[in-house]
Amino acid sequence: MGQQRAEFAAFYESARDDCLRAAVAAIGNRQVAEDAVAEAFARAWASWSTVARHPSPRAWVVRTALNTHISWWRRRRREVPEPATPDSGRDDTGDHLPDPRVMAALRSLPTRQREVFVLRVFLDLDSDTTARTLGIAAGTVTAHLARATRALRAHLTPVLEQEQKL
């Protein structure tokens, strides 16, 4: 048990910031993402012997956080609307989050494209691991990533061009 605890502690320390950044980018709300990631890490600890053997434990945590968010949203959507205000690019703990313009562009993507983009870009997973994590084909990952990249480029290019003119 002591070895397992040490392995999990090391994993948590090395993965928590990446997992939180990916969840914030996918969910679009820092507070909700923090809750979902905390729940995902708690579940990872409870099943550490299985999660440790996963091809990408970080992806497992992010996927679990996204599933937790979906479950939370389904239960609460009729009770309390989720705030639509974008998070700042830097929070008070010093963690660097994606630029608010990138966050806004990510929120404009369909859910699956956003999930694929976050796993491939923020966690640097390959197509096969992303496909296994999301339960889709590797070719589907490639298609969603291409669509997401095209949409993000179309959304962000005019913004950057406008800034360059100023």
TrEMBL record:
InterPro entries, per the entry: RNA_pol_sigma-70-like, RNA_pol_sigma-70_dom, RNA_pol_sigma70_r2, RNA_pol_sigma70_r4_t2, RNA_pol_sigma_r2, RNA_pol_sigma_r3/r4-like, WH-like_DNA-bd_sf
Keywords in alphabetical order: DNA-binding, Sigma factor, Transcription, Transcription regulation
SUPFAM superfamilies named in the record: Sigma2 domain of RNA polymerase sigma factors, Sigma3 and sigma4 domains of RNA polymerase sigma factors
Gene3D superfamilies: 1.10.1740.10, Winged helix-like DNA-binding domain superfamily/Winged helix DNA-binding domain
Database matches in Pfam families: Sigma70_r2, Sigma70_r4_2
Ranges where the RNA polymerase sigma-70 region domain occurs: 12-78
Domain RNA polymerase sigma factor 70 region 4 type span(s) in chain numbering: 102-152
Protein name: Sigma-70 family RNA polymerase sigma factor
